[in-house]
Design goal:
Elements (H helix, E strand, L loop, with lengths): L1 E4 L7 H6 L4 E3 L11 E6 L5 H4 L9 E5 L4 H9 L4 E4 L4 H12 L7 H16 L15 H11 L4 H8 L3 H15 L4 H8 L5
Parallel strand pairs: 1-2, 1-3, 3-4, 4-5
């Protein structure tokens, strides 16, 4: 069961469409410990570090920010959120967040993810070696190329355009890569291929 913790008294239409079975609760109301995922709405001017400690939340929760920013996302992760996204994100995006979090991943905005990946890439390029790394031995040539592009922060669409392949083919390669390298998401992939152990 999905719960939306929101004191605005009106469930956003996009969230209702994404999770028609979901339940709305005020911040002062109890949420069942068995909740699949709890979505906590953060109003403009509020900070996750101030709000989250006042709530009795289950282990899995995501911040829905009316005014999202990289700083809000970082703070949300620091207080234990499994992700942070825009309150008004499309229903498909909200369902994607659910899938990522349900599989043990973290959801962060694309700009923050690209910032982290690019920073990681720059730092680790200095110690790159010419010999194939252990992860490369597990992948095909095309999968290595896709993994490297994604590890540098490229979106599926950008990878497809660069390699002149369909976006669904990129998704298929990523599914195989995640399975072969035993990683859950793009951030873990970047860390693995750049030699950082999480």
């Amino acid at each position: 069961m999905h719960y939306l913790i929101d004191d605005t008294a009106r469930m956003p239409a996009n969230w209702r469409e994404a999770f028609p079975e979901g339940l709305w609760r005020r911040r002062t109301e109890h949420v069942a410990a068995s909740a699949r995922l709890c979505w906590v709405r953060l109003l403009p001017g509020e900070l996750p570090a101030q709000l989250v400690p006042t709530l009795n939340l289950p282990a899995n929760f995501v911040i829905l920010a009316d005014a999202p920013s990289e700083a809000i996302t970082v703070q949300a992760l620091e207080v234990g959120a499994a992700g942070c996204c825009n309150t008004y994100a499309a229903p498909d995006v909200l369902r994607q967040v659910d899938v990522v979090v349900a599989n043990g991943g973290l959801w962060v905005g694309r700009s923050l993810l690209q910032h982290v990946l690019a920073s990681t890439q720059r730092i680790l390029e200095k110690k790159a070696e010419s010999a194939p790394q252990d992860w490369q031995l597990l992948l095909s040539g095309r999968e290595i190329t896709v993994a490297q592009l994604v590890g540098q922060g490229a979106s599926n669409k950008e990878v497809a355009r660069q390699l002149d392949i369909a976006e669904r083919t990129v998704k298929a390669h990523l599914t195989a890569i995640f399975e072969k390298l035993q990683v859950r998401d793009r951030l873990q992939l970047s860390l693995r291929i750049n030699g950082v152990r999480d």
